[in-house]
Amino acid sequence: MDGILAFHRLSRSLRSVSMPLDLTWERLSVLSVVVEREPVSISQLSVAESVTSPTMSRMVSALQSRDLVRCVGSRRDKRSVLVVSTAKGRTTLHKGLVRSLQLLADVLSHLDGDALRAMADMIRDVRNKRPAVAEPGSQGSTAAVR
């Protein structure tokens, strides 16, 4: 249970971080994908973020309105639009990541060894695609960490 409680505290704390330009976590995630993979199409962003193309179009428009990304025509396919980051977008992403990492370091520094080990076990389970917590309603749903 230490890991679960620590994870919830960490999650709550990270959500409370104020992002530059009041960006949502979702938009910051999209911006990070653009910076990492640019130039990238709306459909590629949709797949990367597991949302529909219309949802991604709205997110890109919101980022564009803040001058964080630009849409440019594809040289290969004149019908296609690609998304690229702006200098302001890259700076904003960097600031958001720094704030998040500072908070993460602060929260983790207050955890004891048992809680840190439990969180590490949960992370390993997720990476291995094994749920660390029993699903509600499943047999043995004690919500205990394996």
What does this entry show, briefly?
This protein is mostly helical and 146 residues long. It has six helices and three strands; from the N terminus they run ααβααββαα.
CATH homology superfamily name = Winged helix-like DNA-binding domain superfamily/Winged helix DNA-binding domain
Could you tell me the mean pLDDT?
Answer: 81
The helix tally amounts to: 6
For the report, how would you describe the main beta sheet?
3 strands, antiparallel
Portion in strands:
5-15%
Helix content: 55-70%
CATH class: Mainly Alpha
Q: What is the correct CATH architecture? A: Orthogonal Bundle
N-to-C span: 10 Å
Uncertain runs: 132-146
3D shape: elongated
CATH topology: Arc Repressor Mutant, subunit A
Q: Kindly name the structural category.
A: mainly alpha
Rg, Cα atoms, Å: 19 Å
H/E element order = HHEHHEEHH
- Strand line-up across the major sheet: 1-3-2
Task: Work out the number of β strands.
Answer: 3
Count of separate structural domains: 1
What does this 3D model show about the protein?
By secondary structure, the chain is mostly helical. It has a single domain (2-127), classed as Winged helix-like DNA-binding domain superfamily/Winged helix DNA-binding domain (Arc Repressor Mutant, subunit A). The chain is 59% helix and 8% strand. The protein is built from six helices and three strands, in the order H-H-E-H-H-E-E-H-H. It has helices at residues 2-15, 25-37, 42-49, 53-65, 87-109, 113-127, and strands at 40-41, 69-73, 81-85. A three-stranded antiparallel beta sheet has the order 1-3-2. Strand 2 (69-73) and strand 3 form a beta hairpin. Helix 1 (2-15) packs across helix 6 (113-127), helix 2 (25-37) packs across helix 4 (53-65) and helix 2 (25-37) crosses helix 5. The protein starts with a helix and ends in a 19-residue tail after the last helix.
